[in-house]
């Protein structure tokens, strides 16, 4: 038993406790269990054994929550490891891998509306600006996003653009100057993004509007295309003397536990009176009304979150940290559920050309005349 006790003390010390604090915690826990269960024959040794098992289980969970890192040296290797036929991407019916690419591996994963570069209304006579979200309260930031969404909605309606999810409820909400008040519950909290507005938000985001949604795709090569085209342009510009600080592009893979389980846990927590924490929700959007979404096999993920009204400022948590919390919330998860694939920026032109040769380019992910022209222009960034 002394070996188990020493191992437990070591694990507790790794959490920042001193040796004496670790010993006190174990002794206190053993005493409390003995008082709570006097007829169960609980001993100090059995308490140590149970505590050690619990700590080791938490280590496994925390390890599974950390992303696996896969660094590739060449574009060919990158395409191989992202192949949908790779054994790592097999999944059960309740889980599925989803992917997201970014041209700079050092960028945090943030929805466009929460970036400092987001162009949104600032509330002064229709003026828009790039004011950092951290300068606003939750109410103020959501109000900016709602104002932008309302402007997009009525402009789209005016020119006859088909708007998915265009119900009477959405139309009334978009016509109300005080629509934020209508989203609040009796306690002044509100769910954001509001589910009724997600189809509209998805359409607006695919046409360049900053929203709270995060684009993901079920196709790994589509996820690789977006950083490839941006990073290839950067590489060509750097060769021409334009400096860029990025060294690697990245594709994130996330083994997403599908929403039925997650929503069930949220429902249970709501019945118990607790706010859901760390849950990631997939927002279902009809692909039939969004050609880009259909072509890209896209989906949208957000953190399920109740925002409190008042003066509380916007809290910006990178989505990769939300993934860690989400994975750690499932005590049965013991294998990695997120992977970070990196490739040097210098390989981006080869990656862009390689993806084109397997049928993934601007013409396939943006199926319209503009996408065809963009695909042709991208050949300027292919390796010479």
What is the percentage of strand-forming residues? 5-15%
Helix content: 40-55%
Largest sheet: 4 strands, mixed
Order of helices and strands: HHHEHEEEHHHEHEHEHEHEEHEHHH
Radius of gyration, rounded? Answer: 25 Å
Measure the end-to-end span.
Answer: 67 Å
Quaternary organisation: single chain
| Count of DSSP-assigned helices | 15
Class from secondary-structure proportions: alpha+beta
How many strands appear in the DSSP assignment? 11
Shape from CA axes?
A: globular
The domain count comes to 2
Low-confidence stretches: 259-277
Output mean pLDDT.
81
In words, what does this structure look like?
The protein is an alpha+beta fold. The chain folds into two domains: 2-64, no CATH class; 69-381, no CATH class. The chain is built from 15 helices and eleven strands. The protein has helices at residues 2-13, 19-36, 44-65, 75-81, 138-158, 168-175, 179-183, 198-206, 220-239, 259-271, 291-296, 319-328, 348-357, 362-365, 369-377, and strands spanning 68-71, 95-102, 120-121, 128-129, 189-191, 214-217, 248-257, 280-283, 298-303, 306-308, 338-344. A four-stranded mixed beta sheet has the order 1-11-7-2. The longest helix has 22 residues, at 44-65.
Write the layout of secondary structure elements.
Blueprint (H helix, E strand, L loop, with lengths): L1 H12 L5 H18 L7 H22 L2 E4 L3 H7 L13 E8 L17 E2 L6 E2 L8 H21 L9 H8 L3 H5 L5 E3 L6 H9 L7 E4 L2 H20 L8 E10 L1 H13 L8 E4 L7 H6 L1 E6 L2 E3 L10 H10 L9 E7 L3 H10 L4 H4 L3 H9 L7
């Amino acid at each position: 038993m002394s070996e188990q006790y020493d191992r437990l003390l070591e694990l507790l010390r790794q959490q920042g406790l001193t040796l004496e604090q670790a010993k006190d915690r174990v002794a206190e826990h053993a005493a409390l269990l003995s008082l709570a269960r006097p007829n169960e024959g609980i001993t100090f040794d059995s308490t140590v054994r149970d505590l050690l098992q619990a700590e080791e289980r938490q280590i496994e969970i925390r390890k599974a929550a950390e992303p696996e890192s896969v660094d590739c040296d060449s574009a060919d290797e990158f395409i191989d490891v992202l192949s949908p036929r790779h054994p790592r991407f097999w999944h059960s019916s309740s889980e599925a891998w989803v992917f997201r690419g970014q041209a700079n591996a050092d960028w945090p994963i943030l929805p466009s509306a929460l970036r400092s570069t987001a162009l949104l209304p600032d509330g002064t006579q229709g003026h828009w600006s790039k004011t950092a979200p951290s300068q606003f309260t939750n109410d103020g930031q959501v109000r900016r996003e709602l104002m932008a969404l309302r402007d997009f909605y009525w402009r789209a309606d005016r020119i006859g653009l088909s708007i998915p999810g265009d119900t009477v409820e959405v139309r009334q909400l978009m016509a109300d100057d005080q629509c934020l008040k209508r989203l609040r519950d009796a306690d002044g909290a509100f769910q954001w993004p509001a589910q009724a507005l997600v189809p509209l938000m998805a359409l607006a985001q695919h046409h360049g509007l900053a929203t709270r949604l995060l684009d993901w795709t079920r196709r790994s090569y589509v996820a690789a295309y977006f950083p490839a085209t941006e990073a290839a342009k950067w590489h060509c510009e750097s060769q021409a003397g334009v400096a860029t600080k990025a060294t690697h592009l990245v594709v994130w893979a996330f083994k997403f536990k599908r929403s039925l389980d997650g929503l069930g846990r949220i429902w249970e927590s709501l019945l118990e009176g607790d706010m859901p924490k760390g849950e990631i929700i997939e927002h279902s959007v009809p692909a039939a009304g969004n050609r880009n979404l259909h072509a890209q096999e896209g989906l949208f993920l957000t953190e399920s979150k109740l925002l409190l009204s008042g003066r509380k400022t916007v809290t910006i948590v990178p989505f990769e940290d939300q993934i860690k919390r989400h994975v750690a919330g499932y005590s049965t998860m013991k294998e990695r559920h997120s992977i970070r694939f990196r490739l040097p920026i210098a390989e981006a032109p080869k990656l862009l050309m390689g993806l084109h040769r397997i049928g993934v380019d601007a013409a396939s992910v943006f199926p319209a005349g503009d996408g065809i022209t963009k695909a042709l222009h991208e050949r300027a960034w292919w390796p010479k």
